[in-house]
Amino acid sequence: MITLTLLHPVQLTPVQHWTFETEPILRIGRSTENHVVLYSAVVSRYHVEMQHVDSGWQVVSLGANGTYVDGKRIAQVSAQDGMIIRLARSGPNIQIHFAAAPSERDKPSAASLLLSRIPGMGNPANRCDRAAPLATGVDSALNPQTALEDL
User: Fold this and answer.
1) How many CB atoms lie within 10 A of CB 150?
2) Locate the FHA domain: which residues (predicted)?
3) Residue 56 zone, left/alpha/beta (φ > 0; ψ -120 to 50; rest)
4) pLDDT one-digit tens code per residue, 56-104
5) Cβ–Cβ under 8 Å, residues 87 and 38
6) Which among 110, 107, 69, 101 is positioned nearest to 88, based on CA atoms?
7) What do you get for the CA distance between the two ends of the chain, in Å?
8) Would you list the domain boundaries of the chain?
C-alpha cells in the first residue's frame, strides 16, 4: 500500500492524502486522467509516474518543469518511505509513505466501525463505566417561580 500526501507549501503539513493498494502505476499531474490531480500552472498534465517494481516504487519525472528531490532535479529515482518530491522548482510537495496492507485480523469489524462514529464509543478511554442518573423532577432553574422561592 502507498499513500501520497500533498503538503502545505510553507509549513509542510499534510493537506490531502491519496492511498492506493493495488495499482502498479500511479500518475500525478493536471489532467483528470491521473490518479492524483493537482491544479497548478507549473504542474504538467502528466508530471510524475510512480511505477511499482519488484524492488519497490520508482518515481519517474515526465514534466517539462522537472521533478525535484532534496533540491536536485531527477529523471528517475527509487522512492523511499517519507521521501518528499517537488513538482517543478516552485510547485507542490508530495510526500510518499509505504505501509503493509492490513491483514483480515487487523481490520476493524463492522460493529467497531459503527461504534467509532458514536461520540465517546470509538476509544475505550472515552467510554463511561456507568450511566448518568435520570432526572426525576423538574430542575428549579427551569421553573422561574420555584427559582425565586429557593432564594
Assistant:
1) 8
2) 26-74
3) left
4) 999 999 999 999 999 999 999 999 999 999 999 999 999 999 986 454 4
5) yes
6) 69
7) 66
8) 2-98
| pLDDT tens profile 62-71 | 999 999 999 9
C-alpha cell at 97: 509513505
Mean pLDDT confidence for 16-34: 96
C-alpha distance from residue 5 to each of 18, 34, 84, 140, 148 (Å): 6, 15, 9, 54, 60
The pLDDT of residue 26 is above 50: yes
Give the per-residue pLDDT at 100: 61
* Residue 15: strand, helix, or coil: strand
Could you give the count of Cα atoms lying within 13 Å of 66 in the half-sphere of its Cβ?
9
Record: fold of 2-98: Tumour Suppressor Smad4 (2.60.200)
Element of type H or E holding 95: strand 93-98
The helix (run of H) or strand (run of E) holding residue 72 is: strand 72-74
Give dist(CA 80, CA 114) in Å, integer: 35
Q: Of 51, 46, 56, whose CA–CA distance to 25 is shortest?
A: 51
Confidence (pLDDT) at 22: 87
